[in-house]
Amino acid sequence: MKEIEVKVLNIDFDMVKKKLGKLGAKKIKQENQQNYFFSLKEENGYVRIRVIEDLINNRKKITLCIKKIFKLQNVRQNIEHEFEVSDFNECLLFLKELGFKDYKREDKYRESYILEDVLIEFDTWDKSVFPYPYIEIEAPNIEALERITGLLEIPKENITSKGLLEIKRDLGIL
């Protein structure tokens, strides 16, 4: 699946959530995540195992994902393939057999909303991973992304196409 993505930094979560409510957005996720990242050797992207504690439906699930990242103007375009797996340890052994050796675990809390065909996600990582909460917006195209950021009155200077590692480098916390 292709997606256009940006992050919104230095923004008041409550203010944006109120605007989403007034615009009729639907809350679709509230979850705790354990993310296990494996680097792709010759690609800009990663493989990830994610253990999800779904707080809305009171269930757990595990997903395996590959994400390749491309820069386009002021947004990122990702090619992402994700599917559910039934056994974390078998998935981990599978990846090790494919040659993936080192991984890092990073945990976060996420709330997600859908407005029209755009996904708005509020991410709060463990403080040791990233100390500042931010919003991630995923859209099918640049026009939809610009429409939603306009409706939410998000200042352009708060929007970045940078990934979390780039943001951490810029802030000197990597």
From TrEMBL:
Short name of one Pfam family: CYTH
UniProt-listed InterPro entries: Adenylyl_cyclase_CyaB, CYTH-like_dom_sf, CYTH_domain
A GO MF term: adenylate cyclase activity
EC number(s) reported in the record: 4.6.1.1
Cited SUPFAM superfamilies: CYTH-like phosphatases
PANTHER family documented for this protein: CYTH DOMAIN-CONTAINING PROTEIN (PTHR21028:SF2), SI:CH211-156B7.4 (PTHR21028)
Name used for this protein in its record: Adenylate cyclase 2( EC: )
